Amino acid sequence: MTKWLLRCTRCGRTWVLEVSFDLTKLSNGRLYHYCPYCKQNTFHEVMKRVEEDEEVRTAELMEEKG
Predict the structure, then answer these.
(1) How many CB atoms lie within 10 A of CB 22?
(2) Which of 29, 40, 53, 59 is the most exposed, having the fewest neighbouring CB atoms within 10 Å of its CB?
(3) Under DSSP, is residue 13 helix (H, G, I), strand (E, B) or coil?
(4) pLDDT given at position 5
(5) Cα–Cα distance for residue pair 14/54, rounded to 1 Å
(6) Beta strands 2-8 and 40-50: pairing type?
(7) What's the pLDDT at 45?
């Protein structure tokens, strides 16, 4: 499984999504998915692939941005 940092285009919050495919292959760089913060389906920008050691720091940054 690969982890990706996504940013909701509606609320701007970032979060990590774990999927089994390469999101860089999306033609427009966006994914329509459920946002756990907006509580609805919205477009998300694919920010970057998250390595295992980055995941903890990414979660910390997400909390700081609140």
Answers:
(1) 11
(2) 53
(3) coil
(4) 92
(5) 14
(6) antiparallel
(7) 94
CA 31 distance to own-chain centroid: 9
Place of tokens 């999504």: 17
Q: Where are the beta strands (DSSP E) in 1-66?
A: 2-8, 14-19, 30-35, 40-50
5 beta partners: 16, 48
Q: Are 66 and 11 in contact (CB under 8 A)?
A: no
Is pTM beyond 0.70? Reply is: yes
Rounded Cα distance between 52 and 44, Å, is 21
Task: Say yes or no to pLDDT of 11 above 90.
Answer: yes
- Tell me: the pLDDT tens digits for 43-63? 999 999 988 766 556 555 655
